[in-house]
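Ops channel
N.P.: pipeline sanity check, posting one input/output pair.
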């Protein structure tokens, strides 16, 4: 969603999106951050299922955003 809202892209918006991605990966990699945010990655299969769901949701959001933009131009 942040990638869609950050449009039109400028250097600082691209940095913002990249920083959010890096911060999320840091939370997934650091056990003490997982404890702080009460995030539990159970097994190997479930995190990849979550990634798959997130990819499908992101693609759906992008398609709906483009459809709405064409249907109701600003």
């Amino acid at each position: 969603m942040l990638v869609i809202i950050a449009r039109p892209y400028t250097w600082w918006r691209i940095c913002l999106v990249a920083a959010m991605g890096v911060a999320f990966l840091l939370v997934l990699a650091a056990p003490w951050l997982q404890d702080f945010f009460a995030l539990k990655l159970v097994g190997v299969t479930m995190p990849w299922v979550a990634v798959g769901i997130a990819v499908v949701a992101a693609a759906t959001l992008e398609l709906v955003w483009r459809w709405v933009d064409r249907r109701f131009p600003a």
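N.P.: looks fine end to end. The CA atoms of residues 4 and 65 lie 8 Å apart.
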